[in-house]
Amino acid sequence: MTLRRGLVLGGGGITGIAWETGLLFGLQELGVDVTTADAIVGTSAGSVVGAQITTGITLEDLFAYQISPPKPARLASIGPNVLAGFALAMLRARGDLEAFGRNVGQWSVRRAEAGRLPSLEERFDAIRERLPIQEWGPGQRLRVTAVDAGTGALRTFDGSDGVSLVEAVAASCAVPGVYPPVPIEGVQYIDGGARSGSNADLVADCDRVLGFTPVDRSVGPMRTAGQLLGSTPHLVVSPDTASVAAIGKNVLDPARRAASARAGWAQASVVAPLAQEIWS
């Protein structure tokens, strides 16, 4: 019997990309290569990592990039005003997950129209820098998540619908209130994390699932990766104490990238036996 294995790469900002990369690289060095997953779901930061590993870039090269000095860039943050916007959108949603997506999506659209967010050109440049190979990988293994800012509905991209990899990843990384919604086919999309930090239920039909979730919380109608996977045999890994310290308070701070990557790499030594057990 051939097992169908799923990999969940969750959201978590710039430091989340680094932590996931370090963890994946550390596991590979220890003989557990989970990039061979049959199905991969990437949300926000996880969409970047998913795109990188499915387009043929080696984990060694990806890790080297994460620990290299970052280029000067405008520092973004999920500050008090943004958190207040999230909280108000959640309150008005009254437990309805799609209503939350609509509320936070339209709020982000208004902020973008008022010129309070970076330009789309700036965001696409940032995404292209993170994706040295900008074509979808073979086999349509990767599903990139985003949320329709008008309806709050989830949409996934896998390259089969003509949407470019750069567009899909930019949409998945469009943190509401921080980065502008991304227009695709006349529809504005925001971060897939507006539905779930992991969207792990998209691979719940696999026989075994590994989830790497920098931010995995149950808030209002949102559910953790473990809750979404239910009875599917799975292992969900989140940052340990050392990794949390390395990540720091601002997940969008490039200065924390190298420390986060190294912390993920170190955490792999603890995760490897458990990952090997579920993966094989």
From TrEMBL:
Keywords: Hydrolase, Lipid degradation, Lipid metabolism. Gene3D superfamilies: Cytosolic phospholipase A2 catalytic domain. A motif (GXGXXG) lies at residues 11-16. PROSITE patterns: PNPLA. Residues 7-207 form the PNPLA domain. A motif (DGA/G) lies at residues 191-193. The active site is at S44 (nucleophile), D191 (proton acceptor). A motif (GXSXG) lies at residues 42-46. PANTHER family: BLR7027 PROTEIN, NEUROPATHY TARGET ESTERASE/SWISS CHEESE D.MELANOGASTER. This is Patatin-like phospholipase family protein. The lineage of its organism: Bacteria, Bacillati, Actinomycetota, Actinomycetes, Propionibacteriales.
